[in-house]
Amino acid sequence: MQQYILRRILLNLLVIYFVATLVFLLLRIDTDYVVTQRAGQTSVAESGSSEDATEQAKKLVRKDLGLDKPILEQYWIYLGDLAQLDLGESFQARDDVTEEIGNRLGPSLELGLLQIIVALVVAVPIGIISAIRQDSIVDYVLRFVSIAFLGIPVFVLAVFVLRGSAIWLDYTPPLTTYKDLLPFPPFETGRGVDVWTNLQIMFMPAIVGGLGTGAIIMRFLRSQMLEVMRQDYVRTAWAKGLRERVVILRHALKNALIPVLTVVGLLLGTIVSGNVVLETIFNVPGIGLWVVNAIGNLDYPVVQGVVLVVAVTLVFVNLMVDITYAWLDPRIRYG
Known about the structure:
By secondary structure, the protein is an all-alpha fold. The protein is built from 13 helices and no strands.
């Protein structure tokens, strides 16, 4: 097991290296556009023609953004900074990217965790009921609802919820620019958090995102429950006269959760990136909203910093999921 974990960690580090390299190269395919855009906002004292002034402005911008060096030199500087956990400085706001990610991580984590909680609370009981009542009216209704939530894009559902609450309930969630929504360390700054306002801000996006995610988990869990309930050890449990609750929860559910755990693990990995659509629609000041604005402003360091944080989270969450497999199913052994 220890050798397996060590090999996976080394493999994950290699994956992160390739992701970092790919992001670096992709964001530097067309730097002229960024330089031209920023040069147009730079005032330079004209000592000649307007073309000379433009070229001078471009040189100043390239030097300011660190794009005046050869690509290999930029790459080595970039890797050296990453080794020191330095993700660079924002082009637009001149803020430290690592610090800003830390500041905006709280709202994204809170929204993501609330979505996962909503999804599990909804999906697990519905998936179990749908499986043990296969091909009944209840099963058909639950499958119809899950397919409906799978088919409706999250931004459409979010708009309907916002418009519906405003028209029928005369209610809209409060807006905030407060980044430290989690009311406990390390995301609080001592300014205090109104928990009730916090819940109002997070309630709608958590429900909207959780229903869509829950539909995915429910479909996986149902199919796995049906497969597990046909196994011999479950039939033996029924033949021994055990109660339905014991057979379902103790014998079937634990093994059916193994593939579902992969889906939940991937969802846990992606919450760090923020729910880009939901954060933008509901104006939640997390990483998702921040990176959308950064893309619009062609802010390379912000984009590559967020991508790297997401990549690191995903690969190590996947490692934790694989380790959890062995706990759920003792038959699994890693060589």
